[in-house]
Design a protein that fits this description.
Layout lengths: L1 E5 L3 H13 L3 E5 L2 H10 L4 E4 L9 H9 L6 E5 L4 H9 L4 E4 L4 H12 L9 E4 L2 E4 L4 E4 L2 E3 L3 H12 L5 E2 H8 L10 H15 L5 E5 L3 E5 L7
Parallel strand pairs: 1-2, 1-3, 3-4, 4-5
Antiparallel strand pairs: 6-7, 7-8, 8-9, 10-12, 11-12
Helix pairs in contact: 2-3, 6-8
Length: 228
């Protein structure tokens, strides 16, 4: 799942981005309100982490930009503004959560995951299809209760397929969800990741199957036939 981090403190941004990457998220980072608005216009995000003291405008302008588009993407404000009036204003402006600096990175990650588990959002803590279970907290996949080792990219691909099980996931959806705006992608990187994941699941005797719809995308199903 891809997040937008809006933070002008580059040292803090790198710390948060690295921690979120380690928790399984893809993160785009920008430093200004204008950059945030441009990113929101060109990419889809599962959530936004928003500082308020930005060099060009107040971060609440980004929040207003999101909500004025009738966009319900979860927004977590991450700021040093600790006054009651600031917190009330942020929440009343449409923020879903408000975290004060300094903060513990583990709590930040937990709060983001909690936001994405709310009704209307896509992040369950445990994903399951057939005999395959993916715990999104521990990033552990088990087949009939037995853990299997998957690469970071295989985990990312499997999570996206499980979240959209029985539905088509196009190549463009993979690219949008699994790569940050600054990532360099190879033309066949998705195909390679799918091939490796298929082999890993087959070797572990998983009863889920990745079907290829040529020219369209992929479907994860618990039936071996593509006639669904």
């Amino acid at each position: 799942m891809k997040l937008l981090l809006v933070e002008d403190n580059l040292e803090l941004a790198d710390l948060v981005k690295d921690a979120l990457n380690g928790a399984g998220f893809i993160v785009d980072h920008v430093s200004t309100c204008d950059e945030a608005k441009a990113s929101l216009m060109t990419s889809n995000y599962s959530g936004v982490i928003l500082d308020l003291r930005l060099p060009d405008e107040d971060g609440l302008n980004v929040l207003g930009f999101i909500r004025n588009r009738s966009d319900s993407t979860p927004v977590l404000i991450l700021t040093a503004r600790d006054g009651l009036a600031d917190r009330v204003k942020g929440l009343n402006s449409g923020a879903d959560d408000y975290v004060l600096k300094p903060f513990e990175i583990e709590e930040l990650i937990a709060r983001i995951k909690a936001l994405l588990r709310r009704p209307g959002h896509a992040m369950g803590t445990v994903l399951k299809l057939g005999n395959t279970t993916f715990d999104t907290i521990s990033r552990q996949v088990t087949i009939t209760g037995n853990p299997i080792a998957l690469s970071r990219r295989e985990l990312d691909v499997l999570e996206l397929l499980l979240r959209r099980a029985q539905n088509v996931v196009t190549k463009s959806m993979f690219e949008d969800e699994l790569y940050g705006s600054n990532d360099i992608t190879i033309s066949n990187s998705i195909e390679v990741a799918i091939h490796r994941l298929r082999k890993s699941l087959n070797d572990a005797k998983a009863d889920v199957y990745i079907h290829t719809l040529r020219g369209v995308g992929y479907i994860l199903s618990d039936t071996p036939s593509s006639d669904m």
